[in-house]
Write a structure and sequence with these properties.
With 90 residues, the protein is α+β, with helices and mostly antiparallel strands. It has one domain. It has 2 helices and 5 strands; from the N terminus they run ββαβββα. It has a 5-stranded mixed β-sheet. The chain binds zinc ion.
């Protein structure tokens, strides 16, 4: 099956871009992504990143499927669009 995924990207200046991509995934991965998040691939969401990180597909009730990566000490998998909105409100 194919899913639509929003990706929050950052260019070389740190400007934010949103890209919509379509990913083909299996049913098991789809269900995993909906429930807890599923590994997608190694990659960079910004040219500012030194190394590639494991990227995950997560399902957010507000933003749908999005790509994220483990953050913080507890390596939480969270929607980056939600995090960005929370950050903006501070
Ligand atoms: Zn979200």
């Amino acid at each position: 099956m194919k899913i639509k995924v929003s990706v929050l990207l950052m260019d070389k200046k740190g400007e934010v871009l949103t890209e919509i991509i379509h990913i083909r995934i299996g049913l098991v991965k789809y269900l995993k992504a909906r429930l807890v998040g599923a590994f997608w691939r190694y990659g960079k969401l910004s040219p500012l990143w030194q190394n590639e990180l494991p990227l995950w597909i997560v399902y957010c009730p507000t933003h749908g499927f999005t790509i994220t990566y483990p953050m913080g000490y507890d390596e939480k998998i969270q929607c980056r669009f939600c995090l960005r909105e929370a950050y903006r409100k501070m």
